[in-house]
Amino acid sequence: MIDFRLGDEYEALRKTVRDFAQSEVAPVIGEYYEREEFPYDLVATMGRMGLFGLPFPEEHGGMGGDYFALCLALEELARVDSSVAITLEAGVSLGAMPIHRFGSEEQKREWLPALCTGEALGAFGLTEPGGGSDAGATRTTARLDGGQWVINGSKAFITNSGTDITRLVTVTAVTGQQPDGRKEISTIIVPSGTPGFTVAPKYSKVGWNASDTHELAFDDCRVPEANLLGERGRGYAQFLSILDEGRIAIAALSVGLAQGCVDECVRYVGEREAFGQKIGTYQAIQFKIADMESRAHTARLAYYQAAAKMLRGEPFKKEAAIAKLVSSNAAMDNAREATQIFGGYGFMNEFPVGRFYRDAKILEIGEGTSEVQRMLIARELGLP
Ligand SMILES: Cc1cc2nc3c(=O)[nH]c(=O)nc-3n(C[C@H](O)[C@H](O)[C@H](O)COP(=O)(O)OP(=O)(O)OC[C@H]3O[C@@H](n4cnc5c(N)ncnc54)[C@H](O)[C@@H]3O)c2cc1C
What we know:
Elements (H helix, E strand, L loop, with lengths): L7 H28 L4 H9 L18 H12 L3 H21 L2 H12 L4 E5 L15 E5 L2 E12 L6 E12 L5 E9 L5 E3 L13 E12 L3 E2 L5 H35 L3 E2 L2 E2 L4 H29 L5 H25 L10 H9 L9 H11 L4
Helix pairs in contact: 1-3, 3-4, 3-6, 4-5, 4-6, 6-7, 6-8, 6-9, 7-8, 8-9, 8-10
The protein binds flavin-adenine dinucleotide (FAD).
Flavin-adenine dinucleotide binds next to helix 4, strand 1, strand 3 and helix 10.
């Protein structure tokens, strides 16, 4: 059966988030962005709307929805602004999801209710200063000593890790050696404020300027043995599965940015004049916008299909990688074309397309670069 229509609940959610993005995010986000300030009030509203709890069960404080609902929300937010969208994406799919998927009942009860309401944020510490694509090469270590994990190492570029409401970061660390000689990697929950855990000042970034990103250092940082998330030695498999899902979420966010570029251009070319005519009457401009719409449309189909396979419980690794690859390309291409259509104003921060341009590039890098997506697709095709 093929049916690409959204059900009533999905459609209602999409509309609610669209209204919020247009009426509450759009008017203020440009100033947050310029001040490089985290938008606590918008995050609090998103929390009250239930967005941080979308794919989690009600018994742990969630909304009882699914991952596709989260994707729809991300698309609609990113259509207006990506900093707000990535704050939600990282909070849900990287911060809370590992606890939901792999945590003990006790860990879920301790952490999920506040993460689901957006009162607290969790972060996911996988990437290290020495490399992110080869995440199995983790250098951070954790050893057991007197019933505690002693963590040493550092993590780079960690989203949501240093806000006033950040409560925890889940960290991947080498906890030993497997029988075949490979590193044994495990995931450990480190609450914010634990002695020995330092959050560096925020990075100065090219884009996503209203989102929170820091380098983290662990220097003989001690947490209880019970903070191990899931089974010891399963850390590598855990983050691979978290990233597979996360790719669909980043694809949705990318589609939102790509569509936002179309929205802005359709409006602008009906107003701007050159050589005595609206620039929207020139076929060269119309073709650019037609191509932009086509890219957003096809990328959306790719993430819908990957999400549908995931929700049916079927393997979706290849489809998620394809969706992330094509939608981040679409976002980048559309942002470049939108900036061109806006001319000099496209280069001004006061217009959303300038923000889109700065925010698009990271989509080809974060949660697996485009090269990594191609590696995954090639591997799924059985290439050596
Ligand atoms: C703003 C921001 C937020 C982020 N948030 C988080 C977060 O919350 N948590 C987290 O853990 N990480 C986060 N990251 C890290 C992000 O996931 C990594 O930057 C990304 O995975 C790439 O890793 P790297 O930067 O170390 O690049 P590298 O791995 O050093 O790669 C450098 C280049 O080499 C290419 N390359 C590497 N290996 C191969 C190969 N085998 N074949 C061909 N090309 C190859 C890459 O594609 C890339 O072009 C964030 C990054 C940014 C910038």
